[in-house]
Amino acid sequence: MPLLGGIRPPIAVLCVLILALAALTAKVLGPSKDAVAPKAVLSSQQHFAEDGAIAMRASVDERVADLDRTAKALSAGEPVKPERILSDLGRTYQKWTGTTVLDVESGEVLAARGETIPLAWLDKDVLTGKRALTPRMVRLETGDVRLMIMAVLDWKDRPQQLLLASSSLSVPAINLGQFRTMAVVSEEGEVLATAGFERAEALNSDQERKELAFLQKQMSQLSDKAAVRTEKHPVRAKEPGSGGYPGVSGTLVGNEYNGRVALAGYASLASSNPEEKKSVAAGLGLTVVSLLPVVQEETGESDRELYGLIAAGILVALGLLAAAVLWTTVQRPLLRLFLESRRLARGDRTRPVTVPRWGEAARIGAALERLRQQLDSENENAAAAGAGDAPRRKKIRIGSRGPLALTLALLLVWCVPVGLLLNRTDGSVSVPMTMVNDQRDRTDLIADRVRRALNEAQADLVSTSHLIGADDASATTRTLQKALEKHTRYRALYVVDADGEVSARVGGDPADWSTDKDQPLVRVTGKGGKEPVVQAAAPVSERKGATLVGEIRVEFLNSLLTRPGLGEVRVVDTEGLTIAGSDGFLAFEKLPREALTDVVHAAGVRVGADPVETGLLLRDGDKVTVAAAAPFSGGGITADIGWTVVSWQNAERFQIAPYEREDRSVLAGMLGLAAIVFCLGWIYLVVVRPLRALATSAEKLADGDLKTVLYPRYADEVGAVVRSLELLRQQAQAHRHNQARRTAEVQPGAGGR
Fold it and tell me: Whole-model pTM?
């Protein structure tokens, strides 16, 4: 028999698969080996570091864009004194630690504000070449590192001036939570800035100071490791097709102190999208590291090892029973038929055929016995008289499909309870509080990100409004067209006069703009339409009462909300109606659950001067949802517009012990079902179905059909029986021809002489 043919290979494969599944069951349904922290907590730290890196990149790029925008606006107008430039720059932006204007040709400092900017690093390579005017990181005499940003002031018929601005590489002003710390790390692993560490003198005990020293040491060690890992190329650092964050990110596990383990997430600064323009901040080689001490969890699952062994033992017992059923009812009768048919084909017809008790094998055995009697040389007279005296087969009601159904039932007794009933979770599942806190803090970070993006959009309009002249409509249109091509966040740009009429526009059709002075400069309109219309505006100084309005694409806001591990995120207005969302939504629709609206209202309650973010664990029946809401707060034109970012996700997505056990149980049940379908389907296609066809052919042959040729299709036991039956058919056909010839020879002699 061929190695992969016949009945024995699928039964052997079934036994092997059952033993392998039993071993896997004993392992995966036993106690969890993750004693430090759930995988969900580790992944959350990675996502938090990625969010911090995105905020850091946006902050640096925003500083570069602000200085470049200011320089272009100044260069487009009349020359301004250096002292006036720095004064206006300081009033507009409070993000620079020091500013300087110097003459490019002579290098003379024309004006300076704030901390002294060292100029020794300025050389020809900084001002010329491919990396001209690229931001640099410069170390001051005090040891601090500053980010130096440059822009050229170029007036006609005036010497060029270089505008320098220095800023600290501080962690973005985001909510880190109660215990988390964050650091900005250089390519060499040096910690350039930190946030979240308490001052040693503010601590109340020596124990707290020791813990602070431990965390600082862990931050330094883990930052070194993160810097080494982020040196890899993002494509080579990830598995193919993993997607996600465009840079290099991951998690690190530190040491343990006083029952808490230092967990860190890291992420390199990278462009938001490889297809978009490269980020200036992404070229600085910086890495953001987020550190959180987590209480080391004890699994408390030592008794679960017994559960896994019991489930594996039951599977082995049922598998052996199923294999015994197949061996007894299918394999052994088929092998017996193979031996009997081969014996008859070789001419050994002295003893009767051993006929199986039931099924197709019994039908084939009865047909073989009838053929033996017909071909037996001692019973030629009986054979010549006909086959009527041969024993007839009994009517068989149960075929070979019965054992397969019994085997299927035996194995489903294990697969169904394990997959559908074992380790099922309900609404009482325990979710780590760290996940709730991270959901809240990350939601606040997204709110800050959206707020900054809207502020930047309005600031772009302010800069563009300075370039709009008093009367030239064609020049205004060209200016708007250039701004629209440069900033993809806008859907349309248009200038509205004091009476509300649109005097110039580019892009899509303009929406109505109210000239009411009580309305905010960033607002949302379009209720009743297909999508919200988010508008930002800036007064045009050269035209009295005129306003430059930009419609921000909703798709742009949606892209800011899409973050892995955060679930569904939406921006809602003061009434709780949807303005933007990470997933599909209807314009100005309410939140899908009333509890989410309550979370938004709770976040809008002011505690002190500003509203605070809120994170809650919502339980509804068997469903557990982690929800958070963060209202817009901080600085900028959009701080008081009343919008809120709300996020929620089903806790089933978390990689925590209860849900992991449930997933493993479902996986074990599905694997068992797959093994059943594969092996039993193999047996049915290769053995049972050909065996049923063979039984019909054998009965026809025993009934006297000697013309139908039997062709073996498989090189297995069934094929061997078919070949033997074909030999018997040929022998019976030859026996009939010989008998007919002898009869013809005898008849002439008896009738004529």
Answer: 0.74
